Every structure is written in structure tokens, then in C-alpha cells.
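Board work, copied verbatim: ascorbate ferrireductase (transmembrane)
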Amino acid sequence: MREHLPTVISSQQRVVDYGSTSKASLSPDPQPRAQRLANFVLASESPPSVKRYSRMPHNTLKGESQQPLKRLEYLLNVLNQMCIGFVTIYMSYITLRTNLATTHLHAWLVTIGFSFFMAEGVMVHYGGNVLTNSYRRSTQTTIHWVLLTLGGGCGAAGALIKMIQKGFMLQTTHGRLGITAFVLCLLAMSSGLAALCSTRVKKLITPLLNKTFHNFVGFACFVIALVAQYYGYQTGYFKARVETDFQILMKCLTLVSLVLSSYGPIKGLYHKFKAISGQY
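↓ predict structure ↓
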């Protein structure tokens, strides 16, 4: 049987090391193994002739496509602020130049409460609000509570003054909507207090359900209150002081303010209902 003899490699024989990344391994006099190390080049040190491609984030194009929508939201919010300011200033001008008798005080309180404070309060958390979008969430929540407390208090007081004056016998559309807004305002303020103390009442109702109910009732109160304001321009008190063309202008401004102010709350309610449907 033929024996297997060890292969002897002479020092003159050329050996090619296929596992090394060093070019020195191809030379006639190979380097020791410890010196045959891999050569690495940092990406920052790569030659300028090498073209580097970076991966574009997925949200870049999405953010660019949302820029026109954001600008439109800001523009509409500025228009809404102008409508709210005009209605509030003009109604204050009409009512405050008198001695704030019963009807004058009623008109001023409901305008300040519902058309100004509550309209600003329901838009605090809206991302397109140019007045509050730069604040932190906790600061926005504080502003929301302050505005809604002032708005609900002034609006409810103004409605109560008229109901006492009429003996709670309001037969007109304006009066009936005012009573409905008054009841919803008290309910929204009560649910808002429960939402503020949600950790204490979470045994009875979950915080998400409580806050959703509060937002829904508060938004319904705001809508009905501004519709009542719209019909208030048809009352004898307003007709006796304002010309017909200006009555139409005030109605249009109130409706524009109602529609533009409702976008943020409807968007928030949609996300809350979506979260609730995902839990059940």
C-alpha cells in the first residue's frame, strides 16, 4: 500500500492565500499571518469619486404632500378667528353702550360665552390652530379648561337670565335652542369635571369613554348654541338695531365660524370613536 507522505512546500514556491484580503499575500515572500489583516475603509473616509446613496425616509414624501393641506388649515383658521372677532366685537359694541339691561346682558353674555370663549376652547387641541399649536399638550389642556369654564359660565348665565325673564316659557326657535344649549352646557361641564378627575371615577367608567362623552356633549352644546345665536339675529331686539343687510352678514359670519370651528372637534371625536371600537 502506498503511504501518504506530507507535502513539503519549498520556500521558493509561490503560495497564494485565498483567504486574505491583503495584497501582500500575492507577493513571493508572504508576510506572517498576524500581519495579514483585513483592510477597512470608513464610509466618511471614502473617496469623493464614489457616489453614495442614502435611503429616503418613507414619511418625507408624505410630509411634503401634507404641506398644502396644513397651509390651507392655517388659512381657514385665520379666517375663522376673524369671523369670531368681528361677531364678538360688534355684539359687544351694541350691548355695552347701553346700561346692560336684561336683554342687553343676555345678548352680551351668550355671545361672549358661546361665540367667543367656547369657540376658542373647542379649537385649542386642534393642530391647525395658529394660536395654540406651538404650546405643549399640558398647556393646551389648561387653556382648554379655562376657556370652556368661562364660556360655559357666561353662556349658561346669559341663557338663565332670559329664561327667568320669560318665566321659562320660550316658544320661539331661538328660545328652545337656548334652553337645549343651557342643559347641554351644564351636562358638559359636569362630564368635564369628571374627565378632570378621571382617575377617581375610572371604577365607574373608563377615562376614554368619559372623555369621549364629554367631548361629544360639549361639541353638541357648542353647535346648538351657535345655531341659537343664528336665530337670535331674527329677534325683534336685533332687528330694531341693525339693518337687514347687516343681519345677513352676521348670520353668514356665525355659520362660517360654526363650520370652521367644528373641524377640529369632529376630527378628535373620530379618533376617540376609532380607539373605542378597537377596544371592544
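Residues 75-279 form a domain with the Four Helix Bundle (Hemerythrin (Met), subunit A) fold (CATH 1.20.120.1770).
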